[in-house]
Amino acid sequence: MSEEPALVSAQDVEYVGFWARVGASLIDTFAMLFLIVPLMLWYFGDSWAYADGVMAFFINWIAPAVAVMLFWRFRGATPGKMVISAVIVDARTFAEPTPGQLIGRYLGYYVSTIPLMLGFVWVAFDARKQGWHDKMANTVVIRKRA
After folding, report:
1. Mean pLDDT of the chain, nearest integer
2. Residue-wise DSSP of 4-56
């Protein structure tokens, strides 16, 4: 994404809703599984499903977090969001979010998940289709314009 401010007004924005974001998340989950499981099998062999330790933590938690945030930073979206033509932007300016916002958004996923995934379900009821993680990071997910 470019560093220039977005030339988008609030009237021109189409917020991406709950079901589209669920679909994007499913695409991202399967893509991540196709990367993580073979790596775990290669490193741990047949006992991969019960692996623990530093390397298992890195493969299962750190590497996916870094990959997601790199996609957000350099593409504005994960592969699943790209499929549905969505992009993550700053909620006030509709410009590219800061790295701090992206880190906060990712950490906000845990906040959104812990209480029975209510932070994600919130997207279905919010006027701007923001989950709790979006609200924490001051971001929105909008339809990317061609």
Report:
1. 93
2. SPP---GGG--B--HHHHHHHHHHHHHHHHHHHHHHHHHHHGGGGGG--SHHH
Would residue 6 count as lying in a domain? no
Tell me how far CA of residue 82 lies from CA of 52, 75, 119, 129, 140, in angstroms. 33, 8, 22, 17, 15
φ and ψ of 3, to 5 deg: -90, -5
For 40-88, the pLDDT digits (tens) are 999 999 999 899 999 999 999 999 999 999 999 999 999 999 999 999 9
Q: Is the pLDDT of residue 8 over 70?
A: no
Does residue 31 lie within any of the structural domains? Answer: yes
Residue 21 lies in a domain: yes
